[in-house]
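Exercise 7b. Backbone tokens:
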């Protein structure tokens, strides 16, 4: 399941499979909701993977069923995405969702055409027949429609399970043998279809329907748990890595820390971690993170390179120039430190599943793999194979695995923090004096959020130092000092975000605390922009 490797002219990649007792495969036709299907399956304690629809399906012993995603395409398009659903259905239970349902209907001889009715938004589902797929789903349960095509006629041999006011075939199946035994028996397997999206929040009992497919139809035993993952992953890492050494750049973030802890469980101090202070970390973060790593038992070397970063950042005001400078210096320092460790063959990374999914195109083999934020884009010239123990986990799963490993909650629940750190929260030139100003203001802000029990309800929060000075009055003295902007957003995955509606009294108190305790700042503003159109970070 995970990558490892050995030395070579370029990085070597090969799969390290954790033993899976069961797995669901999701064929992605390009739907914006495909990751939500995977998350719903994982939440039912069933392991799953997403692959592009055109990738060959490997029917290994642990594969229990296949889910076909939605798509922005029409099944009647000239270049519509196609898979051989009858062939899949002959081997395993299949659930088609939206486009997957329409493609099923078309391939089996039904009729699909552009809809002349509204088929977007909430609808109420009327059950026409009791069936294991809709077991325990209430009558008139709310579901979410999002499609331009509609099924005009079902193929021969299919039956309707549910409809809505506008959709005559909201749920249907191919009539066959008893679903309860079909998953483990020879012959034809169950084939179910949904015109709506059960994976989205607006389908109130959608996750129950998905769970019914997994358990009642595919026969999954729901044994995908953090404890199971840790046990299997550590055992596989031991086998894969053998007696070799692994080096890893650590950031103090959730992903790299959990990945390092798993690798350390497998090989002990043959994992060497490097934690670089680039001068733009949060207040006291360098010491706090090193202390936490020591508490966990990781073998980590701290490198204080803040002075070097400040020298190289001097005079740079363009955000991209600052990012490139920090990335280049980090790579140079990491390579220098890695060269001091003898016998290193493998590089550990905290890559997680969204990184992997986003790097693969459903329209064909990906041409560009995104650089992983965990390590700042380490180059191929390092000649190291990769070890990525979190490669198939979502962020929330990483946190649950971290809790299973005993990693302190303060670290696991930390907000995301940009790789270039406070350098992109200081608009304009970065100096040591400005960094200290922002560290102090940010520290007041974050500590206040935690004290008022607001921190955990926010996806990401931080302060931004603006290149703006304004007049103020403190006591009888006139001041001319900097302005700081506070940012807090709510989000699920960071792809979109809303500004957090923090209480006015809280904002007033934080403003007073920052102005009274951080000399050099005399004005505080609050950013109420959402993403889109704005971004979470200012640079």
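Sequence design result:
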């Amino acid at each position: 399941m995970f990558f490892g490797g050995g030395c070579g002219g370029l990085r070597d990649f090969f799969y390290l499979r954790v033993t899976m007792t069961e797995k669901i495969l999701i064929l992605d036709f390009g739907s914006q909701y495909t990751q939500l299907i995977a998350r719903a399956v994982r939440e039912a304690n069933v392991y799953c993977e997403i692959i592009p629809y055109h990738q060959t399906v490997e029917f290994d012993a642990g594969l229990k069923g296949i889910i076909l995603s939605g798509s922005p395409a029409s099944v009647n398009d000239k270049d519509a995405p196609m898979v051989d659903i009858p062939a899949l259905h002959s081997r395993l239970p299949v659930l088609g969702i939206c486009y997957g349902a329409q493609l099923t209907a078309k391939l089996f001889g039904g009729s699909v055409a552009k809809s002349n009715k509204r088929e977007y938004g909430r609808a109420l589902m009327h059950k026409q027949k009791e069936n294991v797929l809709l077991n325990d789903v209430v009558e008139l349960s709310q579901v979410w429609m999002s499609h331009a095509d509609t099924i005009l006629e079902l193929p021969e041999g299919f039956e309707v399970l549910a409809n809505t006011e506008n959709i005559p075939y909201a749920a249907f199946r191919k009539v066959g043998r008893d679903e309860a035994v079909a998953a483990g028996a020879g012959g034809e397997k169950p084939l179910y279809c949904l015109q709506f999206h059960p994976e989205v929040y607006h389908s109130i009992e959608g996750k129950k329907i998905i769970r019914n497919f997994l358990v009642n139809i595919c026969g999954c035993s729901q044994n995908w748990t953090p404890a199971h993952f840790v046990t299997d992953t550590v055992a596989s890492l031991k086998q894969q890595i053998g007696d070799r050494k692994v080096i890893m750049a650590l950031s103090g973030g959730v992903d790299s820390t959990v990945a390092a802890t798993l690798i350390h469980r497998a090989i002990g101090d043959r994992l060497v971690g490097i934690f670089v202070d680039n001068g733009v970390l949060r207040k006291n973060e360098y010491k706090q993170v090193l202390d936490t790593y020591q508490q966990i038992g990781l073998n980590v070397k701290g490198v204080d390179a803040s002075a070097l970063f400040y020298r190289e950042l001097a005079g740079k005001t363009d955000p991209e120039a600052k990012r490139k400078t920090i990335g280049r210096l980090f790579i140079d320092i990491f390579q220098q430190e890695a060269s001091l460790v003898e016998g290193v063959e493998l590089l550990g990374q905290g890559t997680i599943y969204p990184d992997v999914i986003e790097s693969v195109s459903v329209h064909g083999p990906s041409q560009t793999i995104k650089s992983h934020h965990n390590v700042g884009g380490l180059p191929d010239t390092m000649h190291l194979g990769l070890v990525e123990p979190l490669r198939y986990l979502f962020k929330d799963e990483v946190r649950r695995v971290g809790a299973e490993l005993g990693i302190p909650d303060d670290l696991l629940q930390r907000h995301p923090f940009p790789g270039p750190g406070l350098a992109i929260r200081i608009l304009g030139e970065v100096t040591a004096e400005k960094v200290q100003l922002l560290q102090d203001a940010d520290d007041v802000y974050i500590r206040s959020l935690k004290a008022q029990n607001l921190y955990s309800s926010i996806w990401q929060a931080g302060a931004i130092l603006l290149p703006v000075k304004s007049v103020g009055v403190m006591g009888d003295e006139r001041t001319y000092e900097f302005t700081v902007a506070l940012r807090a957003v709510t989000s699920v995955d960071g792809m979109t975000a809303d500004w957090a509606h923090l209480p006015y009294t809280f904002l007033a108190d934080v403003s007073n605390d920052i102005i009274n305790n951080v000399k050099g700042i005399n004005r505080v503003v609050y950013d109420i922009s959402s993403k889109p159109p704005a971004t979470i970070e200012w640079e």
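Instructor comment: The chain has 15 helices and 22 strands. The first strand starts at residue 2 and ends at 4.
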